[in-house]
């Protein structure tokens, strides 16, 4: 196959986003006439999401580990995590970070709150968690950077109160946005 034909074929494949080519890279770019390898890239969707003031975005890895993990963000926004996820609901106590991060990977929203948050606001968070299958709420005992922190996979928003309308905007916008969406929470 000539270099011009290979170049044209490469450009055509790139322009179409991939396809059913039977060029085997191990054969030096030559077509393999005995076997056909079908490689499809995972489907991706590009969407424009409206900005929510104050949301921070992070690039995070994913992977499983049964060992404790030290996270650079409080609370964690993603990363290596426990093989078992934390079921989404309301918890009046802290939950293991590694399990909550696994829930984030499944597209959950994790809302953490300080223990001194007014009881009416804690009750509002409990009602939110119990009304949605993709919200996990837990207390955070020490070092939470604001009274309420809302976290999705790779995103975080610090709030002073549960009455801030950005809380529900964040939940609506970023729920089901983890690397393993549609997995159980």
Plain-language structure description:
The chain is α/β, with parallel strands linked by helices. It folds into two domains: 1-44, no CATH class; 56-174, Glutaredoxin, CATH 3.40.30. 24% of the residues lie in helices and 16% in strands. The protein has four helices and eight strands; from the N terminus they run H-E-E-E-E-H-E-H-E-E-E-H. It has a six-stranded mixed β-sheet with strand order 1-8-7-5-6-4, sandwiched between helices. It has a two-stranded parallel sheet with strand order 2-3. The radius of gyration is 22 Å and the shape is globular.
Helix content: 10-25%
What is the CA-CA span between the terminal residues? 51 Å
What structural class do helix, strand and pairing data support? alpha/beta
Q: Which residues form runs of ≥5 with pLDDT under 50?
A: 1-48
Characterize the largest beta sheet: strand count, sense, and whether it forms a barrel.
6 strands, mixed
| Gross CATH architecture of the largest domain | 3-Layer(aba) Sandwich
Number of domains: 2
Inertia-based shape: globular
Write down the CATH topology of the largest domain: Glutaredoxin
Strands across the major sheet, in which order?
1-8-7-5-6-4
CATH class of the largest domain: Alpha Beta
How many β strands by DSSP? 8
Please tally the helical runs, counting DSSP H or I stretches of 4 or more residues: 4
Query: What share of the residues does DSSP label as strand, in percent?
Result: 15-25%
What series of H and E elements makes up the topology?
HEEEEHEHEEEH
Radius of gyration: 22 Å
- What does the average pLDDT come to? 79
């Amino acid at each position: 196959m000539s270099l011009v034909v290979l170049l044209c074929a490469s450009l055509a494949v790139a322009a179409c986003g991939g396809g059913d080519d039977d060029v085997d890279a191990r054969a030096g770019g030559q077509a393999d006439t005995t076997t056909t390898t079908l490689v499809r890239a995972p489907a991706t969707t590009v969407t424009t999401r409206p900005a929510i003031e104050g949301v921070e975005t992070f690039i995070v890895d994913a992977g499983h580990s049964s060992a404790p993990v030290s996270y650079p963000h409080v609370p964690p926004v993603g990363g290596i995590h426990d093989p078992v996820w934390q079921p989404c609901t309301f918890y009046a106590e802290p939950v293991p970070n590694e399990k909550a991060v696994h829930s984030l990977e499944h597209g959950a929203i994790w809302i953490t709150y300080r223990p001194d948050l007014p009881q009416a606001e804690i009750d509002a968070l409990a009602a939110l968690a119990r009304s949605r299958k993709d919200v996990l709420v837990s207390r955070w005992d020490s070092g939470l950077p604001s009274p309420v922190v809302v976290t999705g996979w790779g995103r975080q928003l610090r709030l002073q109160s549960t009455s801030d309308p950005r809380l529900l905007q964040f939940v609506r916008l970023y729920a089901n946005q983890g690397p393993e969406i549609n997995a159980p929470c």
